[in-house]
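Task: fold both queries, return tokens.
Query 1:
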Amino acid sequence: MKKLLPELAAVLGEGGSNDSRRAAIRAVKRFAKMCPEAMADSETQAVLIPAVMVCVKDKNVMIKLAAERAALHVLQMKDGTPSAVSAQPVVPVVEE
């Protein structure tokens, strides 16, 4: 799985088609839901969180909404666990 995550993050970049990006976001969300213990790993967070946050700011509404739902699971905010706080050093600061 460690080899697949950077590939998913690369697809999430702004260069891919909207359909492939949305499919990658859904895959990230499913992975986060099925393997919450993997989301606590700092290496996994370092790969996925910046890519998902780029999609959260996307101009395409479908990408943005899917990324927001995925971010809830990647950051484990639905469970109320403190892992979202531990991810703060990984989340990029984006200036508009």
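Query 1 returned. Query 2:
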Amino acid sequence: MGIHFKVHNGTVGGDSLCDSCINSQVVEGFSHSHKVIYCNGPINGLYVTWPVCKCNEYKARETTALKKMEEIAWIVQPRKRGAVGFVQILPPDPTKKKEDDDL
């Protein structure tokens, strides 16, 4: 799973993908040039010295794992309220007397 950027008439700008990747450890100093990125991806122990715009092992830190989502999910169960849908209307019972017939 990688992120691809399409650039027209220019260069890619912005932050490095390593800044938001779960596989990276980023150590920054006060100056922009004082930045060390240690990648724990497939090549364990790789030091990255340039801003990365494309990586096939990129995994965003903000994405939550499926197991974690299952742990925090609510279990919703319907309440029993009787029959659902259309109600069958029975024809009138001829053995019962109507109140109007007495008049």
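Both queries returned. Flag for query 2: The longest helix spans residues 66-72.
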